[in-house]
Fold this sequence. Notes:
Shape: flat
Distance between the termini: 131 Å
Low-confidence stretches: 1-19, 305-339
Strand order of the largest sheet: 5-8-3-2-11-14-13-12
Radius of gyration: 35 Å
Amino acid sequence: MKPFIFFAFCLQMMQAMAADTEKTVKSKPERIIVYTQGAQVHRTAQVSLNAGPNTILFTGLENCINPSAIQVGGNGNFIVTDIQHLVHYPELDKAKQTGDLKFQKYLKNINDSIKELDYLLEDLNAKQEALQTEKNVLLNYNLYKGVSKKDSIPYLKDGLSFLREKLYNINAEQLKLKRKREKLQVRKDGLTERKNTIYNELSNASNTGEAEKTDYRVAVNIIADQAGIANLNLNYYIINAGWTPSYDLRAVSNEQNIKLTYKAMIHQNSGVDWSNTKLVLSTANPNRSYVIPELNPWYLGYSNNRHKQKNYYELESKSLNYGSKDYSGSAPSSVAQPAEQVQYAYDYTSVNENFIETEYEIKLNYNIPSDGKDHYAAIMVKELKTLYRYKAIPKLNNNVYLTAILPDWEEEITMGGAAAVYYDGSFVGTTFLANAGTEDTLQLSLGIDKNIAVKKAKVKDK
């Protein structure tokens, strides 16, 4: 009896030590770099480490993390030995805690049976396709269409007899396969229904009244020389997020320059709401390939050359000089605005531009829910040099149009996007600003000026 008590005591001690070295950390996104496709999420946490191995478990993360783009750093006397991306299913843990392991074993057998039935169904489909192909070949044979060079009554009789026999055999085989497929499908449907029933029973038996969802985690294994406090920085890349540019072009009168408002439409569907979070908008796209292409030689001649000819499109070369220009917006601490004056988000945006990308850092905390919808954020406002001209085409109509000419407008556009045009507070229409165009001057129609009239009169030739 004593050896058993000692063994149980040792087991409890080992479980206590394991629980002590594994710590669960709940964090929130503090800084997020949103790309045109995807986003880089930064989280921080302060943990207490024990001397020796430790496992830090970041829970409540996004459901679309790229496991190969997870990074962990921080400050402290420790060594990061391993990083793992984990998916935790609460219902399985509940089933284990309530002693339902036999059901889990039963579910495993059901899943294995369903997988085996899938293989059998796939085999039947392959046989069905082979028989159908053979049937099509027989029906399209020239002898039965009357276009064969050896077309004659004896040949036709023998051919039709052969065709009838083969089609009968093929149809009989197809009928057998259909019956087998229906039987296998009934068995598969029954197993699937049984599996769902067991899942529902386990969920109802362990339901505490709170809806629990799948938990996405990152486990960080750490070795510490001594016990102490460590600050961990976790960042990773997610795919279900991004932003698109949008513009407003506002003209107050024909004596003032047009103001360009640069907006961002941010969306994310990661399963985690971004609450009270710093955002940085980047024009980069991590999903784009940056592999430099290799140009192979082409060979001309009359003989077949063993070298394969490939077409490569030459990419535009850009200097890798990372010198940057910094356009600093007004920070909240350095601007004294009148109490009655409205402030906008672009008053708190700073721009960092280099030859590779442009980053817009918004010095305000944003709330972006995980709903997949576009959420508006104003980035900056710039004045564009504007020339106003009147245009009329009397041959078509007697209207006089006020137009705005914007020279060198493309210098202010880093990404193409739709633009809404306003004049004197009224919406005029929409246009598209493409930064990759060849025109250096943009013409906008601001509407018809009713104060100017034109008339077309035909003059006789002398």
